[in-house]
Design a protein that fits this description.
With 251 residues, this protein is an alpha/beta fold. It has two domains: 173 residues, Rossmann fold (3-Layer(aba) Sandwich); 67 residues, no CATH class. Helix content is 36%, strand content 25%. The chain has nine helices and ten strands. Helix 6 links the parallel strand 7 and strand 8. Helix 5 packs parallel to helix 6. The model has no long low-confidence stretch (mean pLDDT 94).
Length: 251
């Protein structure tokens, strides 16, 4: 992978026998998964298989019923965990951009560092400028979300997540709501992040991205991990029948 720093091989994010129920529905079943530092872990699977729930549990937007999720050895899911502190270490970007409509791109990116981390305004704005430049929006810093395209808004959302200097970035179908011609610019930003060595967990239907950028492909079905393989293997010869079925529907 061009320019990508070599991986350290240290586990950064760890799912250990994770179970999640919504009422009586068992939506995550004994999930064991490790994402290493600088790994791009792509998660795929049919609708309802539990992909979003897995990411949401990682950020404690949902609570798990048993097992443990650890970030860099710290149990995220411990009831005593400092969840606000942990959330700063986990950036999350969703399908819907959720930008504040009354704030400019720059203000959207600078807001959390100022409010949550107490970064002085001038410094937060300098950082926000730099981040917006990094996602290709140097000229749009003073525009409001309504004045930006969907692809531009999603790139602001990525910059906003990066502004907290997270250790890992979670992406949940961030290109699914975009017009097809805007998908590429967002994937490009994600590819750059991967090249710079960001640890990423990416739920996506973009199989080109999975094939080219992922270090691992994890296939989920019915709340279980069906297989987890390097992309070369997954796209050539999945190791499971369900993997072969899923792939044959894609092709
Ligand atoms: N808040 C909720 N309350 C009850 N059930 C839920 C809730 N959120 C998700 N579920 C259920 O949990 C299961 C997993 O849903 P999840 O959204 O994680 O799937 P997904 O793989 O992300 O699907 P998609 O590809 O459609 O986004 C589904 O059966 C879903 O109906
Ligand atoms: Mg989902």
């Amino acid at each position: 992978m061009s320019g990508k720093p070599s991986r350290t091989g240290e586990t950064l994010l760890e799912f250990d026998s994770v179970d999640k129920y919504f009422g009586d529905t068992h939506v995550l079943k004994d999930i064991d998964l490790e994402i290493d530092e600088q790994e791009v872990g792509v998660v795929i699977g049919p609708s309802g298989s539990g992909k979003s729930t897995l990411l949401r549990c990682t950020n404690r937007l949902e609570e798990i019923q048993s097992g443990e999720i650890r970030l860099d050895g710290t149990p995220i899911t411990d009831p005593d965990a400092d969840i606000n502190r942990l959330r700063q270490r986990i950036g999350m970007v969703f399908q819907s951009f959720n930008l504040f409509p009354h704030l400019t791109a720059l203000e959207n990116v600078a807001l959390a560092p100022k409010k949550v981390k107490g970064v002085p305004k001038a410094e937060a704005h300098d950082d926000a400028h730099r981040l917006l430049e990094r996602v290709g929006l140097a000229k749009q810093t003073d525009q409001y979300p309504a004045e930006l395209s969907g692809g531009q808004q999603q790139r602001v959302a990525i910059a906003r997540a990066l502004a907290m200097d997270p250790q890992v970035m979670l992406f949940d179908e961030v290109t699914s709501a975009l017009d097809p011609e805007l998908v590429g610019e967002v994937l490009e930003v994600m590819r750059d992040l991967a090249d710079e060595g960001m640890t990423m967990m990416v739920v996506t239907h973009e199989m080109g991205f999975a094939r080219e950028v992922a270090d691992s492909v994890t296939l989920m079905a019915d709340g279980e991990i069906v297989e987890r393989t390097p992309p070369e293997q997954f796209f050539e010869e999945p190791t499971t029948q369900r993997g072969r079925q899923f792939l044959s529907k894609l092709l």
